[in-house]
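Weekly modeling sync, notes
Attendees: S.R. (lead), two postdocs, one rotation student

Agenda item 3: backlog of single-chain predictions. S.R. asked that every request posted to the team notebook include the full sequence so nobody has to chase files. The rotation student volunteered to paste the first one in as an example of the format we agreed on. Action items at the bottom.

Example entry:
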Amino acid sequence: MQKFTRSKGAALCVFFMMLWMYASQAVASSGLQTAVVKGRVVDDAGTAVAGATVTVKNTTVATSTDASGTYTLTNVPLGAQTVTVSMIGYSSVEQSLTVTAGDNVLDFTIGSSADELEEVVVIGYGVAKKKQVTGSISSVTPEEFNRGVVSSPDQLLAGKVAGLTVNRSGGDPTSGSTIQLRGPSSLTASSSPLYVIDGVVGANIELVAPDDIVSMDVMKDASSTAIYGSRAANGVIFVTTKRGKAGAPVLSYSGYAATESVANRVNVLSGAEHKKFVEDHGLAVAASETGHDTDWQKAITRTGFSHNHNLSLTGGSEGTRYNASVNYFNNEGIVQRNGVERIIARAGVDQDAFDGRLKLAFNLANSINNSDHVDYNIFNGAARYLPTSPIFGEGSDYAQYGGYFQVPGRTNYMNPVAMLNQRDESRSNSTVLANFKADLRIVDGLVWTNVLSYQRSNYDRKYYMHRTDFDSNALGRGYGERTNLKHIDKILETYLNYSLTRNEHTFDAMAGYSYQNTKNDDGVWARSVGFMSDDLGSNNLNLGTLPEGYNPFVNTPYTLESLLISFYGRLGYSFADKYMLSASVRRDGSSKFGVNNRWATFPSVSAAWRLTQESFMQDQEIFSELKLRAGYGVSGNQNIAPYRQIVVFGPQNGQFLYNGQWINAYGVNQNPNPDLKWESTSMFNVGVDFELFKGRLGGSVEYYDKETNDLLYEYDVPSPPYQHNRLLANGATMKNRGVEVVLNARVYSNANFSYNTTVNFARNINEVGSLSSNIENIGVSQRYEGGVGLEGWTGQTASIVLPGQPIGTFYVAKYIGYDETAQRTIYQKPSGELVTQDQISAPDDYQIMGHALPKFTYAWNNTLRYKNWDLNIFLRGMYGNQIFNATRADLSRLQQANVTNISKDAVKEGIYETPLIASSRFIEDGSFLRLDNATLGYRFNVSNAKHFKQARIYVTGQNLFVLTDYTGVDPEVSLGGLAPGLDNRNYYPRTRSFIMGVNLTF
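Predicted structure, as returned to the notebook:
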């Protein structure tokens, strides 16, 4: 793996400067006449509040409360002082006192966090109190984040937000997650949500270390997301990071070390079991493939070790505040030669000027991610390769393969250990984001905000297959690839926010302009063959010897540039915090679309009614908060590559001879479509937020109806008249509707013990509408997806996209049973006729046999505290989904056990006929309940410690168990794309982790 050199040094230099500032301020304050102020902070129920920030106003003196709620402020100047206490989810409180020599005692009672509607959440181009929000927004704080080894911040939200599915199939540390909000809503474009990081729209989520996040707010309905127009159809996730605060410098460290192991394996025969099976069934195995007992899955895996370290510094004065952090993350995969190493450095400065009328903020973040990847075919190889075969061959015949045992002439049959060690793939991705923000308060209530951001990523991929690799492209000559790309994103946002309160009437308005220029894939992709040595790999492709006519630049990417210009605005009105109304509109113009459809408008309107503010609710004692919400909005999806609307020329398959030279053939690779436009999603949302019994029970219930029109879809078209046989066009439709429920309860609370629990539930129904395009006579009635590709399954698929059915509909032969006498499997045609598999014609005789999307998802979070101990247990799951287990089908070839391994489940099933068609025999229930993580922590009492403000240690178990009837490695397979729920052999085993960590504040 590549190591960090200059980047590490630069990050450390920045951080040591911040440490110097920390030390300087500490020394400067030591010469004053000071005293000590101590006390305890509790909520309105008398429960200790841990982690609250206690600050002496207009000084740099600050600390935090410990697990018992106590605090100690040292170096407090003598005389009249004001002490403030703040905590996320609580109302800030301040008290004044006259500090005298010695110890001074000052206790606080702060407003209970039970009133969740008092919390502040981020909305488009601003913030609002939760009680004033009219749309559907879910906020998740660090206390609620998923614990454990987390390679990307989006994994913090898995199971935490009703309706948001964060799916990471397998345990590959280099892979990302598939994210869907309220069901799939596209056939071609990306389904990923829009990230807004500290106000920067579209910022790379990998620029943020999990330990630097203060909150993540998820906008779920179109009335909330419409303000972001053409990019917000899949939802918006706001990420707020730590900022500097006035007060003494606060130095924090958090870190953990973890071990990871394979949670579950493919249940194939061992060497001894395989030997017995082939002998019992009279099968003959080649002599060279016998005599050994090789555990191929064990041979390619290991116990992975991971560690994470985050060091941050915040502080400053009332006028100047700063923050800096460095995060280092190293995650070894449980597969050998696989892992990721990442460093993230962030620094920010906030400056007030002109008596606070001007607020300036500058942020700089740099993420460097180096990763080593493996060929996923090794997993299929580890399952199928005969366990009686050796890893290394005996004799000179195997020298050409690097000494590894191989079987020439057998299709798709390669030694997985050889494949692992003879293919090198490393990737490096460096991303830097600089953004500047200026808020000018022109007059009271009117603020002009300007945001400038520049994001640049450099991507470098190296891939090399050794000269001894069994693959025909590399054997005897080697094969190398190198990809180097640059991506640049420049954004200007300028907007005005105005608010006015008169008696019980509150008005607010916002208007703005946005300019975004994006340039992607600016670089080159090259390949070469004919290497004399493997020593340099793909570092010098020029050392290859190319055969005549070999093009080293085939499929070289071209630069993709796009421009998005927007005008937007919002109006809001509130009467007595009782009736609230909000409306927004955005007008977007994008260069990605046809000349006839460059501009589109995205409106929204929403309203809320707080019934508990009404006079007729004042005498009841059940509801402490009850709010009804309703909204409707339209948002868009432009997540496609630029230039899809114009004709594109490119190299064709072949060359022609001209003037004695071979010339590359060029032709049309893409048809133009001047009517191409963005997908448009309209959504109606109605919800109720409530708190009962003085906040002991709270939550929300939502219903939504979401329809996506003008779906982008690639159609087959006749050539001629079209110059190319495919055309990207709009026209298809899709619907999603569902219910989401969130319940949270303070089950019990006293001075020593508390128990809080949260449950969320989400039910979504997806339905494909029309597949016809908006171009006359172009459309399809159905489309087959999910190519399986097993040996002998040529051209077969497992899924269908069909109007009236959801995405992920399994369309296969209906399996009836097994005739043991004839040793034939029996199927039923749609007509009802019973036939054998050789009489099934795919897909004409296929039927709908299941669905991959779940009927509902759920999660249950439990937090218990006893004195200084805390325990968190988080479970999540899904119900009612099916999985097509192609892995099981591939390992059910009992008749071929002499040339490939088989599963123990197949032996137990005893069906002695090789499966050659996709059928319901391999569709299984994918429902599961997973103990995602459990964390036990202990917070030390540091009230008398000289250097510590907080100290906590914890242990975490991640993916401790899963309850499921699914027979595969793991039921949580990918739910993205047009063929979700397909377990097709190329899996990365899910891991089980055990973590020990520490959180320290100085």
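Discussion: group reviewed the output briefly. The chain is about 5% helix and 50% strand.
Action items: rotation student to repeat for the remaining queue; S.R. to check formatting next week.
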